[in-house]
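FORM 7B: Structural annotation worksheet

SECTION A. Query
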Amino acid sequence: MAEPEFHHVPVLPEAVIEGLNIQPGQRYLDATAGGGGHSRLILEADPTVSLVAIDQDDMAIAATQANLAEFGDRVTYWHGNFAEFKPSGAPFSGILADLGVSSVQLDVGDRGFSFRQSAPLDMRMDPRQDLTAADIVNHWDETELANLIYTYGEERLSRRIARKIVDQRPWQTTTDLAEAISYCVPRSYRYGRIHPATRTFQALRIAVNRELEVLETLLKLAPTWLTPGGRLVLISFHSLEDRLVKHTLKDSPDFKVITKKPVIATDAEISQNPRARSAKLRVAERIVAL
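SECTION B. Predicted structure
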């Protein structure tokens, strides 16, 4: 079966452009280009702006380059995690980070992000890194696993699931692990609103990609990358990310929060792009130094 094309449908497109407050002749950073959906919106908002597009996924950065080829030297590309980016040149007037996993990453079988099809337990957004989900489920001890699943998955049955994982390892595929989790929880939980393995898979993905750690780094570095008055726009897809963004921005002496409540998708957008259902967008502005 052919791999799906890396097509990025940008969530909350109007809110992103409004939040960035695009200004003529200025420079912007898309820290999670994904396939270039949001990057294209930024470049189309004003013909004089320039952009740096970043992604750690080699499929995504290649798709972004193809998608934005018409914009020529208005775009610069960098392949890597935004937490390791070292900008040069003028500061940015706006930074966007659309956090989380793209639908394409979920759909590509051998990436192992989803249990909808059998795949190796990988989950690396950057295939150059060493740690995989298989390393965690096959080598971490039961207490470490339970703590991980509880903390990053917010899973109340974490100890039961961790015990099952340890008792039946080694694990090879996503579907085998998901099925085992499904049958180790109570029947009422098994047939709930979401699949009983969903939170465990979220926890593994967050751990493999150090998602909260790199988000903390971005939040710490963003004030030094932005010009005074520049905007930071962050889109999160689960409560751990949103909580971190909300409290960091509120407590930061470098930012003024623009969005008192997160911007969420309309019913119309969700009907066209179901991924937008859990998206929460927050905006902050770099405070002008006195």
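SECTION C. Observations
The two ends are 59 Å apart (CA to CA). The chain has a mean pLDDT of 92.

SECTION D. Sign-off
Analyst initials: ____
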